[in-house]
Write a structure and sequence with these properties.
With about 450 residues, the chain is an all-alpha fold. The chain has helices at about 15-25, 30-40, 45-75, 75-90, 95-125, 135-145, 150-170, 170-200, 205-215, 220-235, 240-245, 255-285, 300-305, 310-345, 345-370, 385-410, 415-420, 430-450. It has one domain (about 15-450): Hydantoin permease (Orthogonal Bundle), CATH 1.10.4160.
Length: about 450
């Protein structure tokens, strides 16, 4: 049985730092960008209700499992799964969990850097007054002109990836922990400031709350339930190796169940607060709540451009999005970097540079998918960006999540389980039931429906 108390890569200085780091991994574009527009498309409050139920019964059990495996293995996700398989006497083929997670995180980072670059670009654009009194047609043209310019898109993608590589190269303590120590409180502070702004200036705050928390069952169907289930799973950064890698640096003696619950609550709070910021802005300007992916880059600039103080608060909003993207991107890079450090003599800085540059180069395909490569298709008419998104989010993450749940609840030895969850013994039966049956079944449903 493994009984390591520390990782060779370093350790979080406290349970609070692990919570901030893991929450930073989970809180990203999925919370601030994807969640609000999905809620807008799927009936507001009824979607939120379904999402919360799925977080509790599907997302949280798998989150606990991934932290558990990471802390028990104390290595990169790939190395951890090899060591854990050996310790319980099962096939090393279970290391596929680590490989799939690292690959999924790497693929997501490649196109995540492109979208995050868009958000970074909107900071100076909003600050300079580009969107003041802008019309819907002008906002759409501005966005299309930006993404159709490969030099601009690649430039901002490169800047974002350089920042990610620099942070990862500094290691767990000086890089990852220092970043989340400052960016996560700043993120929550900006979100609260924007929430107050939305409540005070829009005149539609109650309408926004009503939309977000009052169920509209007429706009909710089976597809909406599947979407809520998928969002609950993906928003917690499950199946991509990030949480397992971060779990390897978690101090011994901290409650895994309590920590995971806190992370899920913080992640959900950011998603809900983002909706509370965005929908009053949308309603106050007579815009569509179901604007889809264009909500952040077309609809919101229009809203900020029409409101008093919108130039400043719009800028703060895109700073908020950039902060959230950074705390997620460093976690996506970490599993692959940790593995390269373990398997080579390159050291931390060179490993981060190697992995980061490869992710950047792969991301060029996604950057070009919106301009010079928009006609380049790989399969079923999908662009390079669409393919990376589809394979990682719809295949690798769900399968990885199911395997994590199965290994943690069916294959991990009782002694190992009790050793890692000694502070949570009363919760083990509940966790085991949810992780053995309900959670994998829910993810499997999402996977089958999405694929077929």
């Amino acid at each position: 049985m493994l009984n390591r108390t520390e990782s060779n890569h370093g350790m979080w200085s406290s349970r609070l730092m692990f919570i901030l780091a893991a929450a930073g991994s989970a809180v990203g574009l999925g919370n601030i960008w994807r969640f609000p527009y999905l809620a807008g498309e799927n009936g507001g409050g009824v979607f939120v209700l379904a999402y919360l139920v799925c977080i509790g019964f599907i997302g949280l059990p798998i989150l606990i499992s991934e932290i558990l495996l990471g802390r028990a293995g104390r290595q990169s996700p790939i190395g951890a799964m090899v060591a854990l398989a050996d310790s319980v006497g099962v096939s090393r083929r279970w290391s596929v969990i680590g490989w799939m997670g690292a690959l999924a995180g790497f693929m997501i980072l490649s196109f995540y850097g492109v979208i995050a670059g868009w958000a970074m670009a909107y900071v100076p654009s909003t600050l300079s007054g580009t969107f003041v009194s802008i019309s819907a047609i002008e906002a759409e043209r501005s966005f299309e002109a930006f993404i159709s310019d490969p030099w601009q898109v690649v430039g901002w993608q490169s800047l974002f990836m350089l920042l990610t590589i620099f942070i990862a190269a500094r290691g767990v303590g000086r890089g990852l922990e220092t970043t989340v120590r400052y960016l996560m409180p700043a993120l929550f502070g900006l979100l609260i400031l924007l929430l107050v702004y939305s409540a005070v200036t829009t005149g539609e705050f109650i309408a926004g709350l009503t939309f977000l928390f009052q169920p509209d069952f007429s706009r909710f169907n089976t597809d909406s339930l599947i979407t809520a289930m998928g969002q609950a799973f993906f928003t917690l950064s499950l199946g991509m190796g990030a949480i397992m890698a971060y779990g390897a640096y978690m101090p011994k003696g901290s409650s895994i169940v309590g920590t995971a619950t806190t992370i899920a609550l913080l992640d959900t709070t950011v998603a809900l607060m983002s909706g509370m910021v965005i929908f009053p802005l949308v309603f106050a300007n007579g815009l569509e709540s179901s604007a889809g992916p264009g909500l952040m880059f077309i609809t919101l600039p229009i809203a900020f451009g029409q409101m008093a103080g919108g130039q400043i608060f719009g800028t703060l909003f895109f700073v908020l999005v950039t902060f959230a993207a950074i705390t997620s991107s460093i976690s996506l890079l970490e599993p692959a970097v940790a593995w390269v450090v373990e398997k080579t003599k390159l050291g931390r800085a060179r490993s981060a540079m190697l992995v980061g540059v490869i992710a950047w180069a792969l991301g060029l395909g996604s950057a070009f998918s919106f301009n010079i490569g928009s006609d380049w298709t790989i399969a079923n008419g999908m662009t390079f960006f669409d393919t990376m998104d589809y394979v990682s989010n719809n295949i690798l993450l769900p399968l990885g999540g199911i395997l994590i749940a199965v290994f943690a609840s069916w294959r991990l030895g009782q002694d190992q389980l009790l050793n890692e969850m000694s502070e949570d013994r009363a919760w083990i039966p509940v966790w085991r039931f949810l992780t053995r049956f309900l959670a994998p079944a829910g993810v499997l449903i999402v996977f089958v429906v999405t694929i077929f």
